[in-house]
Specification:
158 residues
């Protein structure tokens, strides 16, 4: 599976700013992502975790702001192999040209790769959600103190 830290992750306080290399539109905190989804009727939340994560951990639920949730694996479980049809699946799901794409994974690492790939393909603007759905592991090796769920944003069990 993907590593837990990324050289591409934004430093603290860099939410909303694009990375220096311009490889995607920028990083958003979970709350900023939620605000974008509520403010832009074209915005789409894309959960790039695996089918197993959606089923057993849960998924974000943007339905209360009338936004869809797309679930498109960036990597396949259990091999960690990159999904070769990732971009085709986004397009097949009806992602509109110029629609803001908000990518979310478990901890904000895989979603950087997804945002970069979408940007390279001319989709987006593409954003990464910092800390993802569950956040990084804490000193005890547990997740959940940061991220979408910890920020109290809507979600449902898979």
């Amino acid at each position: 599976m993907a590593p837990e830290a990324s050289p591409h992750a934004a430093p603290a306080g860099a939410a909303g700013r694009p990375p220096a290399d311009g490889s995607y539109a920028g990083d958003l905190t979970p709350t900023e992502a939620w605000e974008l989804l509520g403010a832009d009727e074209r915005a789409v939340l894309v959960d790039v975790r695996t089918d197993a994560e959606w089923a057993y951990v849960g998924v974000p639920d943007p339905s209360s702001v009338g936004r869809p949730l797309l679930t498109v694996e960036w990597q396949h479980f259990p091999t960690g192999e990159r999904n070769p049809s990732f971009l085709a699946e986004l397009v097949d799901a009806g992602v509109a040209e110029g629609a803001p794409l908000v990518f979310l994974c478990r901890s904000g690492v895989r979603s950087v790769g997804a945002a970069q790939a979408a940007t390279t393909a001319g989709l987006g603007p593409a954003y990464n959600v910092l800390d993802g759905f569950e956040g990084p592991t804490d000193e005890a090796g547990h997740r959940g103190s940061r991220g979408w769920r910890a920020d109290g944003l809507p979600w449902r069990q898979g």
